[in-house]
Amino acid sequence: MRISYREAMRQALHEALANDPRVFLMGEDVGRYGGTYAVSKGFYDEFGPERIRDTPLSELGFVGAGIGAALGGMRPIVEVMTVNFSLLALDQIVNSAALLRHMSGGQVSVPLVIRMATGAGRQLAAQHSHSLENWYAHIPGIRVLAPATIADARGMLGPALADPDPVVIFEHAQLYNMEDDLRDEPNEDWACDIEHAAIRRPGSQLSLITYGGSLPKALDAAAELARDGIDVEVVDLRVLRPLDTATIAESVSRTHRAVIVDEGWRSGSLAAEVMARIVERCFYDLDAPPLRVCSEEVPIPYAKHMEDAALPQAAKIVAAVREVLNV
Amino acid sequence: MATVARFEIGFTRFLDAEGEATQELPAFVLDPANLIPLYRAMQLTRAFDTKAIALQRTGKIGTFASALGQEAIGVGVAGAMRKEDVLVPSYRDHAAQFVRGVTMTESLLYWGGDESGSNFSVPREDFPICVPIGTQVCHAAGVAYAFKLRKEPRVATCFLGDGATSKGDFYEALNFAAVWRAPLVVVINNNQWAISVPREHQSATPTLAQKAIAAGIEGVQVDGNDVIAVHDAARKAIDKARAGGGPSLIEAISYRLGDHTTADDATRYRDPDVVQQQWANEPIRRLRNYLARIGAWDQEKEERLLKECTEQINAAVEAYLAIPPPATTAMFDHLYATLPATLQEQREAAQWFASRDGGGSHG
Asked: Where does the secretion signal sit in this chain (chain B) (predicted)?
């Protein structure tokens, strides 16, 4: 069955709403409008205004309300329109959602799912193009997911809702229109693991480690390199907290080389964390210093030619791989 | 110009500073049996505060926030809640928490650095103390919305201070709770001080209650030193919320007779003479005078009550001191439902570090 990332996410949400009365969706324009990225289209009519709750422009407030409702026995899904606006809700996520289990001595848990679009590449300019997944991945007490395939878009939400702890899901805005075959699952159970990284393309000469919106670019780069006889493995982190160090280390200790692709800014990036873990675990297995392909450390430009130049691209990835392999 | 809307804020007081009725009292007051538990709870809170400060000064607990002079607010509101309602407290609300069934030993554990003190044995659905300012109003609106979604006749009651009404969280929560008609009662303990910043430097509005008007809900002001006025306003607001009438805001005017916390020294920024004058308004003497006037209280009863409070508090302190401090690894215990593997390694490292000198202490 060939479907889009958007449709996969929509099906996952629909399933959750239909099967569990504790689940409700809230956020800006999720109701009549059907979601800024049309992920909740049709839900307002089907599930009603109380379960598909349009909120005032109030990120701090409605993320906090999601926390309160989660403590009150519900399974809220809060849609923050984009990661850019989630900055207003950081206090609620960092100081409350991540900490209330601890602060209550285990009396409460916060079974809250927060979804948000992330990333650049659509000419939305500096204030609407952030990739701040690493900020969230920094915080103990939450789980951070970055579905980058149709199967993960379809399968991560269910386990995220079943998780007794808060889960933040990053949906890269450039992935919504991506289409692929959704594998047929027995009993239509698409639930997937939210613990591990995945090898999306096996290879032997270098590990290309990435996540989210950069995955298609990394796969394109790997395909291009393959045409020149260079065999690259592509690792999709999938889960940004807790990071699956074992899969990263296993891959790099086998290929002996690594390039990390991360749309976040280089300094203090997730790519830096992955590189640190590679050095800690695989130092003596490395045949060359690892490299990073990140966004240039500039405000993401509005003009297309500059935006393209600021972001990781397949050509930049190919060049980095060739540099590490010295070919 | 046409007037398109007009608003007013009412102020309610039933007992003046001397405990004289200033107007006809509400029906529940006519039976003193309804007032004595409120009096008792205020006295217990005050005695607990005295003890807790002494425990802090002797290193037995950490920083502590006293409710001195503000006992009527927590007691009056919590006494109007039903068991199945949910309290969303800030850090100065142990008066309300004790009425709800949180034990004094649990409170001491909390202030002593043991998070298990927030795992309440009785009000299992009450929220833990919220230390950040104002964020809990959003949580309270959320749990109230959960009640509404499930069509449960329950109410969330949330406390905050006067300083917190300057926060965006407070405005945002009132705004959407009003749109959603969530069963929420928000109570401002206006004790006149946000640490060292006085009320008039916090907000130019003549009342804090009028901030409700911006959200389209009812806001009232009461004398927070008059437990009857607090209790009466809380009952009305809670009943209204339970009946589907949506949220309300209550501003209870009190005075912080003590320091902000034990980490503060208020003599550095406020005139002790002014504080001394405010003692004339405090809530306990006021209710005692009233009860004595109607013949429901006397010196013997007072002495017996104070003795009981002391005994109860001493027993709670003894129980607290007998509980060993949490293991160093407890900081990992309630981070996730299941600790991720990478944190397991950090937990083991903490265990190794702690094993070098064996155990810690409270506070």
From this structure: none
